[in-house]
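Table 4 source record.
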Amino acid sequence: MQSSPHGLSRFNTLPAAEAERALLTCCGSLHWSRRLAAHRPYPDLGALLAAADEAVYDFAPADLDEALSRETLRLPPHGSYSVAHTALDAAHSAYESRFGHAFVICLDGYGPDEALDQLLAGIRSRLGNDPEEERVLSWDELRRLARGRLARLVRSLDARTEPQEAIDPQEPADSGRPDSASDSPYVAV
């Protein structure tokens, strides 16, 4: 994940509240966003991603619950068969009923034509997990999602002339959420 120093420099110099708000678009834990914002400046993207990983590794159960509660269902792209929508809705409902939170999966490396199959296979295979085992898997998938979103956030800051434009969580094209980035291989359901 390449990033120019300019985007990271913008991130490092954002006011704390703006940095925290931007980070919340990457992971829904307030503790995580505050921790990453407080430890700036980061010398390079690798250091920022390592700090993000460490912050997730240190999640208390409440931090994981908070982050998972902010993940949302993402429907397949328009043009998908309605059968895919129905299957995804049914699988997601069963997953949420069993585990009490949204299904999260990082689909990095899968193209749009493979993502739906991987998503459905992931939900179906993980539905049989023990709740504690699924919590560990969800935690790791959330960590992977946050890394990808964070790298995209830094890249978006590099592409902008005004930092506040890149971190407006209400602006769908740049929110960092998988359901708002058309080129994103990351999916939260």
